[in-house]
Amino acid sequence: MNENYQEYLKSDTWQRKRKAVLKRDNYLCTQCKKKAQDVHHKTYDNVGREPLSDLVSLCRECHEKKHIRNSKSEFDLDREHKENEWQREYEHEIRTGDIERPPWENF
User: Fold this and answer.
1) What is the pTM of this model?
2) Shared-domain flag, residues 50 and 84
3) What distance in Å separates the CA atoms of residue 91 and residue 105, rounded to the nearest whole number?
4) Does residue 49 share a domain with residue 6?
5) Residue 55 CB-density burial (10 A; 0-12 exposed, 13-18 middle, 19+ buried)
6) Choosing a second label site near 104 at 20 to 30 A (CA), which of 15, 27, 29, 80?
7) Nearest alpha-carbon partner for 77 in 41, 38, 32
8) Tens-place pLDDT, residues 35-93
9) Do residues 32 and 24 make contact, with C-beta atoms less than 8 angstroms apart?
10) Domain that holds residue 83
């Protein structure tokens, strides 16, 4: 990214827009509904004068996927998302005692 864009992201104008978008989206990722940390530009055509409708709240994982989408296929992205989802479910079941951790994972 260019230097001007990085400077813009530090500006009061951007910080106000960022906060407004996170609040509008209830601090939830519009893709997966996890807690959103990032605000993503749907288009970079209006940077600096972008309307809030050009911005969307995303969690870090979904934001990174938006930026790597061009280098990976939809199949790869879907597979990664499902693997992450399965891992979260597995870890939740272990924490709640629904299942026991296999002996080979007890290191």
Assistant:
1) 0.62
2) no
3) 12
4) yes
5) buried
6) 80
7) 32
8) 999 999 988 888 899 999 999 999 999 998 887 764 555 556 566 667 777 777 878 78
9) no
10) 72-107
